[in-house]
Amino acid sequence: MTTSYRALTAGACAAALALTAVGCADGNGSTGSGTRQPARALTSASPSTTVRPFPQVPSIAECRRTLGFACYTPDLVRTAYGIDKLNASGLTGKGRTVVVYEEVVPDTLKKDLETFSKAMKLPAPDLTVDSYDPAGRIARFDAKNKDMAATAVETTLDVQMVHMTAPDAKIVVTQIGLPASAYRSALSSGTSPSGTPEPEPEQEAGRRAAEGAAAGAELILDGIAQSVREHRPDAISVSFGIDEYTAAGGTTQPAADLAEFSAPLAQVVAAGTTLVASAGDSGAAPPIGPDGRRVRSVSWPASDPSVLSLGASRLHLDEQGKRTAPDTVWHDKAGATGGGPSQTFSRPAYQNSVTKAVGDDRGTSDISLDGSASGGTLIYQSFLPAGTGWMPVGGTSEAAPMFAALVALANEKAHARLGTIHEELYELAAKKDGGVVDITEGDNDPDGYQATKGYDLASGLGTVDASVFVPALTELAATHSP
Predict the structure, then answer these.
(1) Beta-bridge mates of residue 98
(2) What is the pLDDT of residues 60-107, one digit of tens each?
């Protein structure tokens, strides 16, 4: 889930990459007949087509002068989290594989990653692009299509964050096969004789929403299965999300289809692959109710107990990458991190220590990393109509691939794939030297939660000092091994 800097300068509302609840229109502009069409990803804050990116890597001061807020180079982010120390010690992800699950792959992805890598003085990237295309009609990339361009920024962000964190890891982009018609507006269920769309009854809209969400979830699950079969990855990062409220047909009841997918996800983790997903970019209450009413809901697959749910925080850095203030919860003009109790999944055992915050439900997020748009991390792209160059981007989908890459570093140190690390994560949060750093300021409003001491539904357990967390995780996981 990505946020561009245009959302801040334009004062836009929440930016969320989420799967829509409607069927994708077919080539004739209709929603098809009888068959369930996969839901698709959209962003409410498209990358700018008018504001030109920085031609050279800008300084924090230059970002403040031009944009009115700070933006950070990957070098600064690496320093802030101690990733540079891990890489210097020899942990670079060598021999490890991180899969990022995407919708759109721009033609410039490899070239842009290479340019990013050279500018940041990183090793040459090892990038592979796969397609999961069951329909056999994957859309060609069109940078002039604002939805495709926005989602291509997502993909560019994901691969550059993985490479920034684990520069010697193999990166596999698994692209789901959506047709070109998925990037046209689906028509409503009916049209009046005058040609004006007729409003769809709320009950019927909820049913169609649930069907679309189930189809989208199945597409995600099948794509993950293909990645596991073909690449045996250390970690898979998913930046897509389906709101549980939508999947439950616009109700607060459990989403039965999502619950059915829990067992296959648990099997993936049990086989050694860590699953990471972004918690959402629209705060605790996304605008998913009737007429865009905000409803408290959490994002799947991040809400599944087998998946690590990544929220977004805000870094406050100087020109050397040193903190000028403690990290806070991401909430600015562009959006806010997701987080809250699941309406579908019960509290897993690893969250028994935080029952006071989550109650009887699975609580999200588990942990947070950088994702603020006001203080965004700079990426490089050359496909936007606005021009080639560097732009700050935020969102929980910055946090998810970064954490997936940290898992790859831990696996490299452990000489093994760790799979599920929830138990270790919550245990390390209770230790002074576990590398988990509490976040106590900020919220994920509207109708959200306040960060407090200890676990909270705004930031999860907090964030990490990677230089401490990765070796501590590896050591603790070894003690838990059979």
Answers:
(1) 171, 235
(2) 999 999 999 999 999 999 999 999 999 999 999 999 999 999 989 999
The answer to pTM > 0.85 is yes
Which residues, at least 6 apart from 319, have a Cβ–Cβ distance to it below 8 Å? 59, 60, 61, 76
Asked if residues 53 and 156 have their Cβ atoms less than 8 Å apart, the reply is no
pLDDT (average), residues 368-393? 94
| Cα–Cα distances in angstroms (integers) from residue 295 to residues 213, 245, 298, 332, in the given order | 17, 8, 10, 19
pLDDT at residue 29 is higher than 90: no
Q: Report which of residues 308 and 134 the model is more confident about.
A: 308
Mean per-residue pLDDT, 362-391: 95
Q: What secondary structure, in 3-state letters, does the chain show? A: CCEEHHHHHCCCCCCCEEECCCCCCCCCCCCCCCCCCCCCEEECCCCCCCCCCECCCCCHHHHHHHHCCCEECHHHHHHHHCHHHHHHCCCCCCCCEEEEEECCCCCCHHHHHHHHHHHCCCCCCEEEEEEECCCCCCCCCCCCCHHHHHHHHHHHHHHHHHHHHCCCCEEEEEEECCCHHHHCCCCCCCECCCCCECCCCHHHHHHHHHHHHHHHHHHHHHHHHHHHHHHCCCEEEECCCEEHHHHCCCCCCCCHHHHHCHHHHHHHHHCCCEEEEECCCECCCCECCHHHCECCCCEECCCCCCEEEEEEEECCECCCCCECCCCEECEECCEECCCEEEEEEECCHHHHHHHHHHCCEEEECCEEEECCCCCEEEEEECCCCCCCEEEEEECHHHHHHHHHHHHHHHHHHHCCCCCCCHHHHHHHHCCCCCCEECCCCCECCCCCCECCCCCECCCECCEECHHHHHHHHHHHHHHHCC
CA–CA distance, 197 with 205 (Å, rounded to integer): 14
CA–CA separation, 409 and 91 (whole Å)? 6
pLDDT tier, 146 (very low <50, low <70, confident <90, very high otherwise): confident
